[in-house]
Amino acid sequence: MKIFAIIQAGGAGGRMDVLTRERAKPALPFAGVYRLIDFPLSNLANSGISDLWLSLQYQGASIEEPVANGRPWDLDRIRGGLRLLMPEQGTGTEEEDGFAQGNADELFRIRDQIRNAGMELVIVLSADHVYRFDLMDAVATHRRLDAECTMVTSEVPLEEAEDHATVERGRTVVHQMPGYWRDLGQPHLDVAAHQDILVAPGSWIAGTVGRGGCGRGRPRGRLRGPRPDHDRRARQHRGNRSR
Predict the structure, then answer these.
(1) Residue 4 pairs with which residues in a beta bridge?
(2) pLDDT tens column, 186-223
């Protein structure tokens, strides 16, 4: 099956206030040496998905430089690999030109590019979530249930539920994501994720940034990100451990 992914990393991140005045939200640091964008890229690479588009918009250069054309994830290829999507003008109709007004609008604007890519399945990811997930598990659910759309879900506290919404249309099915997941779209959520590392050193999230792990049972199942010299190997974060 021909599969490719789209990572939507163009939002302004206004809810992060001063943290995103000079850089995009996916470029924000996490656990000292990683960035939020490292999570979707690592999960895709560790799931064996090597054709992907990274959509940039607000402060795009702050993501483009550290991503380094996909080299830390072995995605700098002649065919396939990582492709950067930038907003354009003068290339289509009025509804396709310029900046998108949200995630759904962005997908609508590039619908022809998606169609012309000739893929059988498209995976759409956000760039401000912390999690570990083998995306091929969701693909298996999608194929088994002959779905038009498969939504990967996670349980959140009731007070956070209003921040998330879904729209069901056609044959939409749900795949429950196991394990840890956090949306870091607001400052207090970012703080909470870092507290998870410090107060629970034996948890998955502490192990992920502490031992470089991001994947499930795959040979290269680790969280990867660019080193200062853009080396292909991940720089492991030893982290602080409570005593």
Answers:
(1) 122
(2) 888 888 888 887 776 555 555 555 444 454 333 344 56
Q: In angstroms, rounded to a whole number, what is the distance separating the alpha carbons of residues 235 and 223?
A: 9
Give the tens place of pLDDT for each residue, 19-32: 888 888 888 888 88
188, two tokens:
């207090």
0.90 surpassed by pTM: no
| Contact predicate 163/183, CB 8 Å | yes
